[in-house]
Amino acid sequence: MTENGPVYAHNEQGFALIAVFWVSLLLSLLALNYATTARLNAEAARNRRLGAEYDYLLGSAVNKGYHEYLKYRANRALLAQKAEIEALCGRPLELWYPRFEPWLCELEGLRVAIRISGEAGKFQLRNLRPELWRRIIEVCGVTDDAARDTVVDAILDWIDGDSLQRLNGAETDYYKAQGLEYGCKNRDIDVIDELLLIKGVDSGLFYGEGKRPGLVDLLSPYGRADKIDINSCAPAALALVEDLPAEVIDAIVAFRGGAPITKMADLSEIVPPEYFSQLQRYFTIADSEYISVSATESGAGAEGFGWYRRIFAVNEKKP
User: Which listed site, 21, 35, 121, 246, has its alpha carbon 20 to 30 Å from 269?
Assistant: First the structure.
């Protein structure tokens, strides 16, 4: 104790120890941040590599599907003697004919589903009769008359060549009034997704919901104008036949799963007479000028999603 107050002893080693602690903490944080960044970058690189491998495998699966289709096309006459050929060879005759149900195989350890279907299994977006448009929209879930007429008129306004608006339709003024940056096209639809731009067409109508088909299941720029191919059509498309029982739809799908349907009369024992004339009204046996080949991991992906898809022009003609 002095005249000027108490005297405190200062230990410089204590300050050095605290400084060491702070420096160690900062270095630890920097090291942790670096390690975390390096780990995340490694994970991102790994995911990119796996994603690229996955995409390449699905691309290879699509090419395999197209190769199998060409093999079927060159040898499809053999299907008429399938039982005899299998008995002679002692193994199944594997010809991947076009159908909606996918074929299964394994590529590089990945189990994949490959769908080979003719675009003739869908209606062509151009030149559809208004009454067929109404039936398609109704099957896709729009049962209210006014709502159905709104969608149909809007689609017809979209594809016609004039700016005259139908009673329930929509021309450019309507789309501009909604704050949209596009107007009415007034030309043919080039890609199926264009339908989503049209008044009244929402995602539920386009993709379908539950067991109800969507427009994407029934329509294509490469489809047919009148009747569609019963081998390549989606099972949901069979709902075009009004009140067709689910068990009959399942029987048709099972029938074409074993062998391609070669004539509509083949189904006369499966489809009750009261529905058969309606079935022939919408469906036929048709070759396709365009083949859609899609692939996905078996068990993965939902209908319309998760599929790697290509369309091939084949200009097929009946032999």
Answer: 121
Chain centroid, CA 241 distance in Å? 23
CB atoms within 10 A of CB 206: 19
Q: Are strands 123-124 and 219-220 parallel, antiparallel or unpaired?
A: parallel
- What is the rounded average pLDDT for all residues in the chain? 87
Q: pTM (2 decimals)?
A: 0.76
**Number of other CB atoms surrounding residue 47 within 10 Å:** 10
Instruction: Please give the Cα distance from 197 to 87 (Å, whole number).
Output: 54
Give the model's pLDDT for residue 313. Answer: 92
Provide, rounded to the nearest whole percent, the portion of the chain with pLDDT above 70: 91
Contact 124, 222 (CB under 8 A): yes
Burial class of 61 by CB neighbour count within 10 A (0 to 12, 13 to 18, 19+): buried
Residue spans of the chain under pLDDT 70: 1-14, 49-51, 299-305, 316-319
Strand partners, 161: none
**Do 18 and 44 reside in the same domain of the chain?**
yes
Is 201 inside any structural domain?
Answer: yes
Domain stop point among 221, 243, 258: 221
Strand partners, 228: 283
Sign, CA dihedral 312-281-126-317, equals: positive
DSSP conformational letter for 179: T
Per-residue tokens: 313: 């022009």
pLDDT tens column, 87-132:
788 887 788 999 999 999 999 888 999 999 999 999 998 888 999 9
